[in-house]
Amino acid sequence: MKTKAAKPFSRRWTACPSPIPTCTQNNHVKESITMKSTVDLQGLTPELAQQALHQALNQAGVTTLEIQCSDEAVTQTILELLAKSEAECELLSAKESQVIIANLNHDGVMDSTSLVVGSDQMGQGDDVIGTKLMNAFFNVSGDYKQVPQSIFFLNTGVKLTVADSPALGGLQALQQKGCDLIVCGTCLDYFSLSEELAVGRVGTMHDLISIYHNQTKVIAL
């Protein structure tokens, strides 16, 4: 007796923003000479799947991702994380696998441009006005269409990314427009702020060195 294969169906998703996990190197992302990239997440744990997705989102020039999953829970997590880039997603689902087609909206991201933020204050002099200026800088920056490709926060700069930060709204706006916010994990631990991180992902010194090696414009604040 012949049986018919499961017929794929499509579903439109608008994912909800959520924090992005630490990015580590892996070989699950297949780069393409076109503007499309394939990400194979089949058989991966949710943590490794999130890391692979984040690496794919940071590939310069990629506008479309084809994401292959074999676990519905992982698929749901990936759909939610895609909100970081305001991606428009189409889910093609069969009985034992899922494929997500994600169209990324990074028109305003300034490629090869990064900021390094080493303090929660701007300029030298009075601490109070310095703090106000730094918060204002990020809140105003969040209103602009163009955003840097990434921002690395270290030392007291990590205080800008926690739950009660006056700059939080602006940073969330930057992240939603495709800016990769990287927060020094060692610094968060030093200030006992790891549990209060509210935006961005935890990064390491490797992320900072990668910025200096690969970006053509690095601005220190």
Automatic annotation (TrEMBL):
<dbReference type="InterPro" id="IPR019870">
    <property type="entry name" value="Se_metab_YedF"/>
</dbReference>
<dbReference type="Pfam" id="PF02635">
    <property type="entry name" value="DsrE"/>
</dbReference>
<dbReference type="InterPro" id="IPR027396">
    <property type="entry name" value="DsrEFH-like"/>
</dbReference>
<dbReference type="GO" id="GO:0016740">
    <property type="term" value="F:transferase activity"/>
</dbReference>
<keyword id="KW-0808">Transferase</keyword>
<dbReference type="InterPro" id="IPR003787">
    <property type="entry name" value="Sulphur_relay_DsrE/F-like"/>
</dbReference>
<protein>
    <submittedName>
        <fullName>Sulfurtransferase-like selenium metabolism protein YedF</fullName>
    </submittedName>
</protein>
